[in-house]
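Bench notes, afternoon.
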Amino acid sequence: MRRILFVLSAVGLIVGGFVAYLGGRTQPALPPAFNPAANPYKDGIYASGILESNQASGQNINVYPEVSGTVKEIPVKEGQEVHKGDLLLQIDDSIQKATVEQLQSQSMAALSALEGLRAQPRKENLEVAEAQAVAAQAALKTAEDSWKKQNLAYELNPKAIGKDALDNAANAMAAAKANLEVAERQRDLTKAGAWTYDIHNQERQYQASQKAYLSASALLSKYSLRAPRGGRVLAINPTVGSYVSAQGAYDSYTESMTPVIVLGSSETELNVRAYVDEILVPRLPAPEKMKAQMTVRGSNVKIDLEYVRTQPIVSPKIELSNQRQERVDVRVLPIIFKVKPVKGANLYPGQLVDVYIGG
């Protein structure tokens, strides 16, 4: 029994010593996946940078619709090159299109009425008015002849015709005169054409209806979202059937409103916006002597940069990891550099890079 205990104790000591040996060994460090960014200049200044489109303001173009509605069609794809005026997104415009057609019909009706007033007097209406005047004149002639005959008979023999018959003939002659005067004035009114004030009133109605039609047509064009300039489609946030508005499209992941479409320049036309700490600003070299190099994070790619301009305002630095909510106390001076194209480098707008500035 003692022998067995002795053997087990010896085995335990050997195993414990082996485990202690393994635990005390120092493991060699793993090689880094990529070398950290190194300062290529003797007195280089470090700045954090972000890739952006090569545009006047340096920012990507966030495209928002001016009207609200359901997305009917998206004829472009992310990464596609577009030209100015190309259709990016179509919003359902069926109701607005019907409104435009209605206003167009009203405008055409107002124009037809205006042309009708300007075309007066109509030949057929004038002929009818002339005929009515001739008929009234003939009726007056008949009434006068009848009165003369009855009046002559009355003068020769008062008993030959009654006083009432003579008065009726006189009244018929007076009525015929009045009818002739009305017919002649109606003929003159027809011949004069439309009243000037009626024409001016109809002109205003036509202008108002035409402007309403043009306004509705302009609004209809807003349902077709077109590229404000040539570039590359960087992001399309809505899908066909989703609802968009002037605030953009709702992103269910971030639970916030995002631009409907984001446009930028091509991959070969990128800039770097480097944020230089205000403490390091006095050490910056003159613009004509400024050199810079950027390192793409997660790789050993180093790219020389070309100075473009300095945004002449020191402002609070935006926390690049969360631009919407966070700001830090550091104040920075933005400097924009142009990225010289490098074959095989995967560069995209919004990508974070390390920048060293030297002279």
